[in-house]
Amino acid sequence: MIPEIGQIALALALCVAVLQSTLPLVGASRGNLLFMHVGQSTAIGQFVLCAIAFASLMWAFVVSDFTVLNVVQNSNSLKPMIYKVSATWGSHEGSLLLWTLILALFGAGVAVFGANIPITLRARTLAVQGWISLGFLSFMLLTSNPFERMIPPPLDGNDLNPLLQDIGLALHPPLLYVGYVGFSIVFSFAVAALIEGRVDAAWARWVRPWTLAAWIALTGGIALGSWWAYYELGWGGWWFWDPVENVSFMPWLLGTALLHSAIVTEKRGAFKSWTILLAILTFSLSLFGTFIVRSGLLTSVHAFAVDPERGIYILILLGLSIGGSLALYAWRAPAMEGGGLFQPVSREGGLLMNNLLLAVGTGTILFGTLYPLFLEAMTGAKISVGPPFFNLSFVPLMLPLLFVMGTGPFLSWKRADLSALVQKLRWLMVLTAVAALGIWYLQTNGPVLAVLAFLLGGWLLIATAMEWAQRVKLFSAPFAESWRRAKGLPRATHGMTLAHLGLAICVFGFVGSSAWKEDVVTFASTGTIVEIAGFDVRFDGVQRVQGPNYVAARASLHVTRNGAFVTVLYPERRTYPVARQATTESAIRHTLAGDLYASVAEPAAETGGDVWTLRIIYEPLVNFIWIGAAFLVLGGCMSLSDRRLRVGAPRRSRTNPAPQATPAE
After folding, report:
1. Per-residue pLDDT tens digits for 235-293
2. pLDDT for residue 81 is more than 70
3. In 3D, which of 636, 644, 645, 651 has the Cα closest to residue 208?
4. Taking residues 350-376, what's their average pLDDT?
5. CA-to-CA separations, 203 to 176, 251, 268, 394, 645, in angstroms, rounded
6. How far apart are the first and last CA of the chain?
7. Would you say 20 and 127 are in contact if contact means Cβ atoms under 8 Å apart?
């Protein structure tokens, strides 16, 4: 009965989406207040209906209702409850339902919290959001019904992919989807502004909090996914330039550019067309990622490579949304008023350079991701574009970005004095150069690019701290005065400082764990000792362990350093009988200086089962990646809490309505 309730709720949500996508547009064009207000009520109603449908599917997983095909294919009665719940979005159908729920959530958010937005802009924004929801709801009901029944039901289900049965990946997709789908409302704002033919500082301020919320969620989702890959997959890496990783990273890069571009539009009235274009492209890349992982074009742990007809449906949605919005942009953008003029050496110039580097970096990743697919389609040849290409093409583009990020906050709007800037930062440059030479001395084997990246990360860290200290007159005024100034700074300023510090910290982790890691793979039997990074790791054998829905071979590794006991590590090799799959569970000793990482694989058949494949890795500074990511998220949240972003433009007087809006007749 409950699955039927969910099915009916989805059908009603589709009907509501039809109303939301049409009546507000008609009302905005004719000045009909009643039709424009329909957008608010339908947006809220659609969210309620999607929430009912999602709760119905989750209930089916929780109670192991094996009359639902989706539950049969992705759950099992022996699975722990947390993974029964997370299986709700662990399948193609469930993830689409989560996608539509978040789409409806952002639409309802604008309907509830957008009272300060002009009614015509709000109506058009909600209508565009309704069109997106209409596309995905129809896609789900026609091709990917999450409530499809299975009669007769089996006694038990097939279980979820064991790699997905992890708390990190239970939380990773919802966060990632909030980021992906969150940019849909920014896209809707952009298309609505193009329809009206007007973009101003107020529009940029209305857009910024929604952009920031999506960016925060996407940052957290990507960081959580890299953490999961690091400790779960057993290879000791946190990023492999997998195509599915790339399609989440590209919207993040353009979303970061969009955030900075919207600041210039708000503060100086410049970059209007650029901000609109970034809003369109950012969400377009989110849709592109959805197409990639559901079309069967690639296979990955993350991918839902199923019926290609589903991919064709999404490709049609992709063509309509991207093609239509870009056509509208080409028609309307040239007529937009230009912003304020500025010199190349200015804060606007720094933000423009920031955006160009991020856009070019995104294009580089897009090329590397799509080139193998195009080559195979044209010639039939199969190649893979992996880390070597991206490291050599993308990383050098990001190094100048670190320098610009450190320098930009010191620049004034419109025009900056370059000689005064150099005079102000000369000691900072000397300090950074000395630090780089020290790193070079400690790591005489290089590589040069790693040392340069470390130098620029240090530059960004010190410059960001110095800029904040100058704002509050730290060390140049009494502490009470500095404290008063710090409390008086806008939260968005503190958020910017935290985010820039976070990126600098991430750079240290990226460089240390990539350039200076040590990796040993060997065959091990009881008593084997592995020496790595000053540690002695002794293999003490393997014992069998029974889990709730798996059996595991658990190795015991005794770790010492200079003869002193350090820890005991217990990596596992798990086998899931129902899913007929095996996973590697790594064991990690975490420190700020670096991680000692261990994993075991099944013994070779010719060894008689007594010799195991043992992998020991030492990864310097790797935890700085997730510490820095936490700073990025914290900085974003602090900026989002800034009162200026919550208030937006002044509310229109109720006694003086907009001239274009007249009561319905």
Report:
1. 788 888 888 888 899 999 999 999 999 988 888 888 888 999 999 999 999 888 777 76
2. yes
3. 645
4. 90
5. 26, 21, 13, 33, 12
6. 43
7. yes
